[in-house]
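Question (not urgent): is this output format expected?
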Amino acid sequence: MWIDTHCHLDAAEFGDEIPQVAARAAEGGVACIVIPAIASFNFDTVRKIAHAQANCTYALGIHPIFVPQADDDDLDLLRQTVRDALGDPRFIGIGEIGLDFFIPALKEDSLRAKQERFYGEQLRIAREFDLPVLLHVRRSQDIVLKHLRRIEVRQGIAHAFNGSFQQAEEFIRLGFKLGFGGAMTFPRALQIRRLAAELPVDALVLETDSPDISPVWVHPGRNSPEHLPRIGETLAALRGMLPADLAGLTSANARSALRRLPGSPTSL
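Got this back:
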C-alpha cells in the first residue's frame, strides 16, 4: 500500500469529484492521503474532507504564498484550531508551512521578512504541541534549515524536495524525510532523479502535490492521488527495487515522519 504525503484534494480543480478521486486512489492501493491546509479559510474544509473520505487525513498551517494576506489573528486561530484538533485521529500535524523564494513578489524584503516570521511562529506552534511539519522549501532550503536549527521540531517532511545533496543530508540529520513526486518522472529532471536514486531509501516519502506537479504521462493536466502508485513505480525503477518493496518502505518512512498517521505505532 502507498501513502500520498501531500495532496491538495480540496483544490477547485477537483470540483465535486473528491469522493470519486479518493475512492479510485484507494482502489489503486493508496491507503492514506494527507491533505495540508494553506490558510485559515480552508482549515475547516480540509478537516471535513478528511472525515468524509476513509483514506484521508489532514494538516493545519498557513502556506507561504498566502502569508501576504494573513495577519496575527490567523496565527492565533491556527494555534487554537490545532489545540482543538489534538484529539482528532484524522489530524496529523502542521502544514503546509515554509518559505517560497521562487515567486518574485515574495522575495521583496518586506514579504520575505513576513514569510520568515510566519514560518518561525508556525514552527513554534509545532514545537508547543509536539507535532511534525510539512515544509514548503521552494528555492529556500538553506533559510528553512536555518530556522529548523533555531526552532527544533520533532520530525516532518521537506515537500517537493529539489535541493542539493548537502541540503538533503542536513534535512535528514535533523530528522526529516524528503518528498518526491511527479517531477522525477521526467527523464530530463536529472538532478531530482539522481537525488531519488542515490539518497538513503529510509529518507524518502512519496507525494503527488495534486492537482499540481503532474507526472510526465499527465502533464500538463490535473494531477491526482490516483497516480501515486505509478509515480512509486518510477522511483522503484530508479532504485532497482520491486514496487511492492518500495511501497512498504516509503509508507513506513511516512509513518515515521508523521507519527499520527493511521498505522503508526504512536497512533495506535
